[in-house]
Amino acid sequence: MTMVAAGALLGLLLGLGLVIIVYRSPRARRIQLADRIDPYLRDTPRPSRLLADRPRSSNRPGFVAIEALLRPLLSDVAGRLDRFLGGRVGLQRRLTQAGGRTGIEEFRAQQVVCAACGALFGAFLLGLRATVGIGPPALVSVALVVAGAAGGVVGRDYWLTRTIADREDRMLLEFPTIAELLALAVTAGESAIGALERVGRLTHGELGRELRLALADARAGATLVQALEGIAARTALAPLTRFVDGMAVAIERGTPLADILRAQAVDAREAGKRQLLEAGGRKEIAMMIPVVFLVLPTTVIFAFYPALVSFTVIAQ
């Protein structure tokens, strides 16, 4: 490592530290509107932070200290990323479809962490180039840093899409069984709410969780029809939407609910069979690729190679 490279690295670190100090100083810090009006809205003084509960991971003080130091910076960067990308309404709908266990701020923070992990590879190559003098050119390393950061953000978004698809597949698998259980409960004399409570208590999948959320909405003051429509709003599955609409119409008009549930269960079974046949057809086409490009050429080579060798020997 040359003296010029060492001096440049130290100067870069010193300049970065000075920029962070100036940027996070009280004079340069941007005061939010909530901070301005918060003292006038509180009717009691703010309690001391010394009385707050200790974190659960108190047996690892090093990790707690690192988390406490990085949390404000991570929240700030996540907020800036959210303002840059936008689309909070669509993202909130996708997070709800994924189960609603992650908020927008937490998801943006995870994207920031993934972007930082993706940029570490390019940063490592850049540092290796600056210190030892080996590795790709500096411009390529900087491009790798930017590409790694963008890839981390896009990769976390793709993982959310895969999570939604997997959850919807599990709900489609659970749907016929839950529909039949609801039909049996209603046929046995249970009311609609009683059948939902019984099935929601007995099942533990994603669709059972949605039924429990609908019951919680009904207990909170919403009508049963509104609570069932909330299930359709939180998912993007056409069979489940038709099932909820059928239940809502039956409850509003007083038509026999057991027949509708039984018919919905039969339709769900038929839809599952069609999906299996379609998946089998796609797999059959995919299986032709190794047969055509691997097995068939190998068979042709084994069949014609001895004759080719014989012709070559005879020609000599």
From TrEMBL:
<feature type="transmembrane region" description="Helical">
    <location>
        <begin position="138"/>
        <end position="160"/>
    </location>
</feature>
<dbReference type="InterPro" id="IPR018076">
    <property type="entry name" value="T2SS_GspF_dom"/>
</dbReference>
<dbReference type="Pfam" id="PF00482">
    <property type="entry name" value="T2SSF"/>
</dbReference>
<keyword id="KW-0472">Membrane</keyword>
<feature type="transmembrane region" description="Helical">
    <location>
        <begin position="6"/>
        <end position="23"/>
    </location>
</feature>
<protein>
    <submittedName>
        <fullName>Type II secretion system F family protein</fullName>
    </submittedName>
</protein>
<keyword id="KW-1003">Cell membrane</keyword>
<feature type="transmembrane region" description="Helical">
    <location>
        <begin position="291"/>
        <end position="315"/>
    </location>
</feature>
<feature type="transmembrane region" description="Helical">
    <location>
        <begin position="112"/>
        <end position="132"/>
    </location>
</feature>
<feature type="domain" description="Type II secretion system protein GspF">
    <location>
        <begin position="179"/>
        <end position="302"/>
    </location>
</feature>
<keyword id="KW-0812">Transmembrane</keyword>
<keyword id="KW-1133">Transmembrane helix</keyword>
